[in-house]
Amino acid sequence: MSKSMMDKVLSIRQKISGGMIPAVPVPRYSDGSIHHDAQLAYADYLSKMQISGVAVWSHTGRGLYLNATERQEVLMSWRSALGQDRVIVAGAGARFTGSLPFAEQLKQWKREAFRMAEHAVELGGDALLVFPPVIYKELPHNERDRSIVEYHRELSRLGIPLILFYLYEQGGGMDYSDEVLHQLLSLPSTAGIKMATLDRVMTLQHVSSLVAREYPDRLLISGEDRMFGYSLMRGATSTLMGLGAAYPNIQGDLINSYQEKKYELFMELSSRIDGYAEVTFTEPMDQYILRMLWSLVCAGVIPREAANDIVGYVLSEDEIDQLYSTIHKCRLY
């Protein structure tokens, strides 16, 4: 590993460790276009919070749906608000539709995934959050595993640290075998791994034990919106999750309370955050993005007209009322 890459990886680990990286949604008008004023207001709002940076172009930000112009606007608005000292993690991947013959689809998918990753580098992103390459699930087992590893290895040649992404299958992810995990965690460009298994506690336990035992210098990053407190107990030292998109400070205090062994406070904050997660990260699960946008409306950050998801979901007034009630009940901040 070159000294330059080593320095970048160490810098990312130092900046993220012990901190929060909210995965940020994109405020939009009902026609799907970005609400520019709301985007700027949102970036300004989070810049005043106790966060280590943000994750753009992620699942929460519908990253795989963004065109190049939208990607640039989103990333640059956050860089302007956060400055150079805080981290911008950019998602990298491509959608797999299955509409073309597989060989042709694979070429197109890889081309688009690398274009997105290269765009992040060009715009000054600090690290890549690598969407699971689910297209490889179509391949035989051995070929699939080799392809997953080679894909990450090729991304590492772009000269930017990688954050691995273990995402549960129903959320658009895939399982990684132990051999794949070993090879990915061994890549010099790997800064850490984000775990987002939702309710698969045994998977979280297994991977967290593996990281602690064999890769203690790699960050275990929690994306466990429904197991936040427990993921810290399993060794996560930082978070990268959509749950932090609107009220990150209480979540930052949860991390600090655990690290400082203030367990009574930890239990109280964990209970309040869990109460919020139970309303926002619930079925239909994919609507959590819209619930985060409406949380920002409740916080007075964006207007109601900006609480729209590009895929077209709509919350009922009863659902919005329940969300508002939960936010106040859980005393989020």
Structural descriptors:
DapA-like; 4-hydroxy-tetrahydrodipicolinate synthase; 333 residues; 8-stranded parallel sheet; lyase; TIM Barrel; Aldolase_TIM; 12 helices
Write the layout of secondary structure elements.
Elements: H1 3-16, E1 20-22, H2 36-47, E2 53-56, H3 68-82, E3 87-92, H4 102-122, E4 127-130, H5 141-156, E5 162-167, H6 178-186, E6 190-196, H7 201-214, E7 219-222, H8 228-233, E8 238-241, H9 248-259, H10 263-280, H11 288-298, H12 317-329
Parallel strand pairs: 1-8, 2-3, 3-4, 4-5, 5-6, 6-7, 7-8
Description of the structure:
Keywords: Lyase. Pfam families: DHDPS (PF00701). Its EC number is 4.3.3.7. Belongs to the DapA family. This protein is α/β, with parallel strands linked by helices. The chain has one domain: Alpha-Beta Barrel (TIM Barrel). It has 12 helices and 8 strands. It has helices spanning 3-16, 36-47, 68-82, 102-122, 141-156, 178-186, 201-214, 228-233, 248-259, 263-280, 288-298, 317-329; strands at 20-22, 53-56, 87-92, 127-130, 162-167, 190-196, 219-222, 238-241. Strands 1-8-7-6-5-4-3-2 form an 8-stranded parallel sheet, sandwiched between helices. Helix 6 (178-186) links the parallel strand 5 and strand 6 (190-196). Helix 2 runs parallel beside helix 3, helix 10 runs antiparallel to helix 12 (317-329) and helix 11 crosses helix 12. It starts with a helix and ends with a helix.
